[in-house]
Amino acid sequence: MTIRVLFLCTGNSARSQIAEGLLRHGGGDRFEVFSAGTKPRPDVHPLAVRVMADHGIDIHNQTPKDVEQFADQRFDYVITVCDRAKESCPVIPGAEMIHWSFEDPAEAPEDKRLRAFNDAFQGLKRRIDLFITVHGAKR
After folding, report:
1. Is 88 tagged catalytic?
2. Mean per-residue pLDDT for 19-41?
3. Mean pLDDT of the 100-124 span
4. Would you say residue 94 has pLDDT above 90?
5. Is 109 in contact with 40 (CB distance < 8 Å)?
6. Which is nearest to 105 in space by CA: 57, 37, 48, 60?
7. Average pLDDT over residues 38-46
8. Is 9 designated active site?
9. Tens of pLDDT, residues 50-85
10. Nearest-angstrom CA–CA distance, 117 and 120
11. Considering 48, 67, 81, 82, which one is annotated as catalytic?
12. Which of 3, 6, 8, 9 is the catalytic position?
C-alpha cells in the first residue's frame, strides 16, 4: 500500500518543496508525496531549485499549492516544516501530524541565503532518510 504524505509550510516555496522532492526521489513508488502552503507564494524559490539540482534532484516543475486543495484527500502523514504552518494547519482527518521545525532559508540575509538553503536541504534530507527507513517498508 502506498503511503501518502503531505508536507506543509507557509509559502510552499522552499522547505516543503525541498521535502517533497527529497521524499519523492528517495522513497520511490512506496510514497505518494505532495506539498502545500497555508499562504502559497507564486513560485518555488530559485535557490530551492538550485540546491536540489546541485544534488541531482529536479524540482523545477513543482509549483506552490494551497493546502485547501487537499482538504478532501486522505493522507497517512501531514508533516509541517515551519512553526507558522503548524499553528495554522487545518485538521486533516485520519492523518498522523508530525512537526519538523526549520527556519525559512529565504529569510536569511542575502549573503548567507545559499548557505541557509543548503542547511535546510541537509536537515530535511536527514529527517526524510530516517522517515523512509522507518515508514518505507510496505504495509
Report:
1. no
2. 95
3. 95
4. no
5. no
6. 48
7. 95
8. yes
9. 999 999 999 999 999 999 999 889 999 999 998 665
10. 5
11. 82
12. 9
> What does pLDDT average to over the chain?
91
What is the distance between the alpha carbons of residues 17 and 14, in angstroms, rounded to a whole number?
5
Class at the top of the CATH hierarchy for domain 3-133: alpha beta
- Of 18, 22, 81, 89, which is the active-site residue? 89
Q: What does the block give as the cell for 123?
A: 536537515
Distance CA(109)–CA(95), nearest Å, equals: 36
> Which pLDDT score, from 0 to 100, does residue 82 have?
82
37 carries an active-site annotation: no
Q: What are the DSSP calls for 48-74, one per residue?
A: HHHHHHHTT---TT----BGGGGTTS-
Q: Count the Cβ atoms, other than its own, within 10 Å of residue 87.
A: 10
- The pTM of this model reads 0.93
Q: How far apart are CA 38 and CA 36, in angstroms?
A: 7
